[in-house]
Amino acid sequence: MKSNSVSQAVVAPYADALISLAQEQNHLDAIAKDVRLIGDTLADSVELTQLLASPLIGANVKKGVIESVFGSSVNVLTKSFLLLLVDRKRIAFLGEIVKEFKALLRVIDQVSLAEITTALKLSRAQEDSIRDRVKAMTKAKSVELDITINPDLIGGVIIKVGSQVVDASIRGQLRRLKSSLTAGV
Length: 185
Description:
By secondary structure, the protein is α+β, with helices and mostly antiparallel strands. About 65% of the residues lie in helices and about 15% in strands. The longest helix has 22 residues, at about 5-25. The model has no long low-confidence stretch (mean pLDDT about 90).
């Protein structure tokens, strides 16, 4: 079994359980907000991610950190879930559980995720234009953008929605031009 499939076997049940419990208790919006906060906090703090993943740090220390970082800012259900992950020695998978939860939430809310790679920061108008095009392409109610800036593209944009990829980058155009020129030789 590959490590990715092992982590998926761990991650999916916990994300499913959290989303199911949130729906049953009519707290889905609050829990979703908490999960976004947790994801943002983990993304902003490499130290926190490393601490939670470390097998050398005891459960009580991890619970204390969770209490101090998220204690009053998250729903009681969310905090209980985090403490359960510590007890079950699954807290190292928290970042992946957050991603899986967000993916499940997008399915429930009929939201498409568009992964955007661009050479420069996009303006609000450009983001809205991409959202509108992806919405038309996927028939989703709304579109969430995950934007990555990669100066190697030179210019333009690459849009990935599910398995569909639209490469409108200058680098992609140059690559296609090169292959068409060398194909004729």
